[in-house]
Every structure is written in C-alpha cells, then in structure tokens.
Amino acid sequence: MSTVHVIDHPMVQHKLTIMRRKETGSKDFRELLKEISLLMGYEITRDIALEDIEIETPICKTVAKIVSGRKLAIVPILRAGIGMVDGLLSLVPVARVGHIGLYRDEKTHKPVVYFCKLPEDIQDRMVIVTDPMLATGGSACDAVKMLKERGCHNIRLMCLVAVPEGIAKVQAEHPDVDIYVAAVDDHLNENAYIVPGLGDAGDRIFGTK
Ligand code: PRP
Ligand code: URA
C-alpha cells in the first residue's frame, strides 16, 4: 500500500486557505499554487538521489554532493496540473516536462484522454505527476496507467486537495505510487466536486469561468 503524505506545513496551509476563498482571483490563485508547489516539492524530493562530484573551493579540492536532477520528469495532467510545474522547476530546473491531456466528461465524470507527449527516456526517470485536484481519482489513475504502459516504474502523485475516495482509488489501482497532498477534504458532491474544495482548479488558474 502506498503512503499518503499530507504536507501540513503552516505556510502551505495558509496559502491554501487563500486559494480556497471564492474571491481570490486568477493571478493570486496561480501565484499561490506555484508557491505551494515549490514548498511541496521540497518534501517530495526529500529522498532524491545525490551523487558525488569533485569541486574546488577557494581553499582546496573536495568532493561534494549534487542532485541527480536529470533523472526527474514532471508530468502535469492538463490543464490544471500545469499550475504546479513552475514551482517544481524552480527547485529542479533541469527536470524534463511531459504532458498528459485528460478532461472529465461532465456527465459520467470519467476521464477522456486527448493528449500525451512525454520525454523519450521517461522510463528511466522518477516521475512526479501533478494535478491540484484528486476527486474521483479517475484522471490520476489513468495518467499513471499511461506512464506505466510506457515503462515508468518510479511514479509519485502530487496534488493540492484530495478526498478519501480519490486516494482509495489510486491506492487500490497503483499501490506503488505515493501520494503527496496539502489537504484531505471531506467528500465529493453530486457533481463529483470536492467539498469544501476550491472549485474548478483549471477555470480558476486560467480564468475561463
Ligand atoms: C480536473 C482536475 C483533475 C480532475 C480531477 O480536471 O484538474 O484533472 O478534474 O477529477 P477526478 O479525480 O474525478 O478525475 P478537468 O477534467 O476539470 O479538466 P481541466 O483541468 O482541463 O479543467
Ligand atoms: N476538478 C476540479 O477542478 N475541482 C474539483 O473539485 C473536482 C474536480
């Protein structure tokens, strides 16, 4: 069974509360999502591999550690997952970025695939799938499945807000994928929206409603 990491750092919780407020506009929403992604990225990359390199300080030669950053790929689920990419890239600028396009059918709430473009060597990388909302879990499960079909075996899921239903689905279908979230909310409403949630993340990021 995978682990659910709830990033309950006070700064993450404070910023998330501002994002939840309905009066928060797209500009602030986007900036806060970027800031939270950076803070969450700090936790999600905690066990990332380091390697030794020889360097020379002004005093002497020495061996020091660097992150094997070229081994990381960030894969946002379009559209809303894009809002979490820049925060992670500020942490690991050399990471590659792939994209998986999925939208939820309004009636069935089932995900529909419309795009997939991934780094060629994706199977050799640790992959962080980003999507602010883990609702029914259908989109995240399908995205992870697509990555596994392409040979990926080291996948983590980074969301902002989840509900127990979505977490349970990901854990049942992908028990090897750890989940990182800032909050676990109460339940889904009749339209499969997270309650209390923050509304439609894609629309709030891009100002489409
Ligand atoms: C939202 C969200 C997730 C999905 C979550 O995307 O960004 O991808 O719904 O729901 P699920 O867990 O029930 O699958 P949406 O389909 O609204 O597309 P968008 O990001 O383009 O707005
Ligand atoms: N997608 C969203 O953007 N918000 C929700 O609450 C659920 C799915």
Description:
With 209 residues, the chain is α/β, with parallel strands linked by helices. It has six helices and 15 strands. The chain has helices spanning 10-20, 26-44, 85-91, 138-149, 164-173, 201-206, and strands spanning 4-6, 50-56, 61-67, 72-78, 96-97, 99-104, 111-117, 126-130, 133-134, 155-158, 161-162, 178-181, 183-184, 187-188, 194-195. The strands form four sheets. Strands 1, 4, 5, 6, 7, 8, 10 and 12 form an eight-stranded mixed β-sheet that branches. The protein has a three-stranded parallel β-sheet with strand order 9-11-13. Strands 2-3 form a two-stranded antiparallel ribbon. Strand 4, helix 3 (85-91) and strand 5 (96-97) form a beta-alpha-beta unit. The structure holds 1-O-pyrophosphono-5-O-phosphono-alpha-D-ribofuranose and uracil. Uracil binds at residues 80, 133, 135, 193-194, 197, 200-202.
